[in-house]
Amino acid sequence: MGDAQEDLEPRFPSRKAQSMLPAFSTCCTELISSWESKLAGSDGSHEIDIWEDFQNLTGDVISRTSFGSSFMEGRRIFQLQAEQAERIIKAFQYMYIPGYLFFPTENNKRMKQINREIEGLLRGIIEKRERAMENDGLSSGNDLLGLMLQSNKESGTSRMRMSTEDVIEECKLFYFAGMETTSVLLTWTLVVLGMHPEWQDRAREEVLSVFGKDKPNFDGLGRLKTVTMILYEVLRLYPPAVTLNRKTSRQMQIGGITYPAGVLLELPIIMVHHNPDVWGKDVLEFKPERFAEGISKATKDQPVFFPFGWGPRICIGQNFAMLEAKMALSMILQRFEFQLSPSYTHAPYTVITLHPQHGAQIILKSL
Ligand code: HEM
């Protein structure tokens, strides 16, 4: 994984994320059309659970951007991984029983079966692409799989070269790392903009002044200041990844305390983001204006805002995620206004990432 990280890191700057823009826009257009058809058959407003819709959206984006033309197989893989995540959480409840994962329970058997199916599908996609690159001289393509295989080809026989198993593991990681997190960000953003219509209006005004009703483009997305402030404030209040976990590899001193090797450490991002000593008494309030002059002004140059992690293992998909979120939010604001449904209950809770426990129901209206 370390090598893969070194390999991939330079491949996700914003110019690479830019090449993913057509995939973002195709997937967002599908979502918008499905909302428009729901509204067409209604009396002008319609309740939807954005939690499910955004998971489908970000799953589609990851499928298209990971596997390009093999997008439908990719979609099946990500559906299986979603099922797997739920089953892992179920299994966690019994982890106190030693060796539980080896018991032939229905859940454990299905988890093994899912793993085999995912690996088989991924192996098929990878081999098909490698064959196309070798035999037909086709380019690796501009999707994430293509970037990895191209990078592998360029590393020749060096130790940086990833095995098929490594590539499979990377592809699986994209789902967990890239799909859940971005759908969480979009979900809390709409929830919060439903709670604060004044910020929803300000964001819409900005989007309409930059794009009108046209399809958002890369340059314009980079100029959205209010939208960026809103996304940062949502990432502060509702960081999709609530903690970072580390294990000491050797005896070391941290904050004046000496830890032996093998100690598990947890850095609670969410608690640092909610610390009144850092952010002020209004720490729990949604105030995007904190970020009006950027992150370093908002944090007074302290390392207190790190929704994408920090240091050598910082998220490699942060430009990708921010661009995807800006594209989706802009296209939604161009066409709809929304408010929270009376059936919505505010209950953020952690299932690996920060979910809305009872869904995120909003009432949608066409503009
Ligand atoms: C709002 C969206 C996202 C958030 C909040 C987020 C957050 C994070 C965080 C906190 C880490 C660091 C984990 C650690 O240090 O232990 C991380 C790592 C990672 N992220 Fe993201 N992420 C997001 C989107 C994405 C996307 C879209 C992708 C892929 C396209 C992605 C790929 C990765 C990968 C591969 C790693 C692992 C890097 C490594 O282990 O070295 N992430 N992410």
UniProtKB/TrEMBL annotation:
<dbReference type="GO" id="GO:0005506">
    <property type="term" value="F:iron ion binding"/>
</dbReference>
<dbReference type="InterPro" id="IPR001128">
    <property type="entry name" value="Cyt_P450"/>
</dbReference>
<keyword id="KW-0349">Heme</keyword>
<dbReference type="InterPro" id="IPR036396">
    <property type="entry name" value="Cyt_P450_sf"/>
</dbReference>
<comment type="similarity">
    <text>Belongs to the cytochrome P450 family.</text>
</comment>
<dbReference type="GO" id="GO:0016020">
    <property type="term" value="C:membrane"/>
</dbReference>
<keyword id="KW-0408">Iron</keyword>
<dbReference type="InterPro" id="IPR002401">
    <property type="entry name" value="Cyt_P450_E_grp-I"/>
</dbReference>
<dbReference type="GO" id="GO:0020037">
    <property type="term" value="F:heme binding"/>
</dbReference>
<dbReference type="Pfam" id="PF00067">
    <property type="entry name" value="p450"/>
</dbReference>
<feature type="binding site" description="axial binding residue">
    <location>
        <position position="315"/>
    </location>
    <ligand>
        <name>heme</name>
    </ligand>
</feature>
<dbReference type="InterPro" id="IPR017972">
    <property type="entry name" value="Cyt_P450_CS"/>
</dbReference>
<dbReference type="GO" id="GO:0016705">
    <property type="term" value="F:oxidoreductase activity, acting on paired donors, with incorporation or reduction of molecular oxygen"/>
</dbReference>
<protein>
    <recommendedName>
        <fullName>Secologanin synthase</fullName>
    </recommendedName>
</protein>
<keyword id="KW-0479">Metal-binding</keyword>
<keyword id="KW-0560">Oxidoreductase</keyword>
<keyword id="KW-0812">Transmembrane</keyword>
<dbReference type="GO" id="GO:0006629">
    <property type="term" value="P:lipid metabolic process"/>
</dbReference>
<keyword id="KW-0472">Membrane</keyword>
<dbReference type="GO" id="GO:0004497">
    <property type="term" value="F:monooxygenase activity"/>
</dbReference>
<keyword id="KW-0503">Monooxygenase</keyword>
<dbReference type="InterPro" id="IPR050665">
    <property type="entry name" value="Cytochrome_P450_Monooxygen"/>
</dbReference>
<keyword id="KW-1133">Transmembrane helix</keyword>
